[in-house]
Amino acid sequence: MLRKAMDVLDLFTPKRKELGVTEVADLLRRPKSTVSRWLSGMEEAGFLDRDEGSGRYRVSMRLAAVGEMAKQATSLQQVARPALQRLMAATGETSNLVVLVGQEGVNIEAVESPRPVMHMGSVGRRFPLNASAACKAILAWMEEEEVRALLPRRLPRCTPTTVTDRERFLGELGEVRRQGYAVNWAELEDDLVAVAAPVRDHRGEIVAAVSISAPITRVPRESLPGVGGHVIEAARTLSHDLGWR
Q1: Bridge-partner residues for 200, per DSSP?
Q2: Do 53 and 138 belong together in one domain?
Q3: Which structural domain range is residue 226 located in?
């Protein structure tokens, strides 16, 4: 099915933004009934959107967002790697680069700690907005209306300490702005602490967050300001490398 889906997606171009069942069937030289099933399945999977009036299909906004992330991620990963390596060396903990994709954070790069007990920085891992230090660091500088629109109606609970009250979460973002970094203390996993700071591009827009993640036993609360300083410096260095002044 993936091969068939790619064949369909390859038909869309800047000049051919919408296609009907008959057009796709003619272009692929397949029966209309078969193509109709393919398109319906791709719509259900989130690859395509269907116009209710015309019945024609177009590439979904969800897929477009993933494509935009892939386009940006390559250059971001390449530029971010040295900053992440320095952050890992300064803290001894796994460093990560996270971007927002829709209503989730996605880890697009990681430099793992050399310590025997560490937090794995899994590239491709997704995080809920309310239980990730990196997501908080990105959201904290957005307009409140924009954050409210991104947050799901019911915030998921990952651990007993996850903040699931929307107003409390919005208040926490104000604290992130004041101190310059965000903290996730056992909110995603019981034995995980993460500290993150925002990364800006040449226009001054926040495009990602740099973070460290570690077992809670190695990062006591009193050490958070010092760790936060290292994370802020790494985020500032990466922002400078991306052209921010």
Answers
A1: 206
A2: no
A3: 64-241
**Domain final residue, candidates 59, 75, 101:** 59
Element (H or E) spanning 69, and its range? helix 61-91
Whole-model pTM? 0.69
Phi/psi region, residue 92 (left: phi>0; alpha: psi -120 to 50; beta: rest), is left
Mean pLDDT value of segment 5-22: 86
How many helices (H) and strands (E) would you count in the chain? 8, 8
> Which of 139, 239, 137, 237 shows the shortest CA–CA distance to 194?
137
**Distance (Å, whole) CA 225 – CA 245:** 24
Identify whether residues 44 and 146 lie together within a single domain.
no
Task: Name the β-bridge partners of 111.
Answer: 95
Q: Whole-angstrom Cα distance, residue 139 to residue 54?
A: 37
Bridge partners for 197 per DSSP: 210
- What's the CATH number where 131 sits? 3.30.450.40
pLDDT tens, position by position, 104-137: 999 999 999 888 766 656 788 889 999 999 999 9
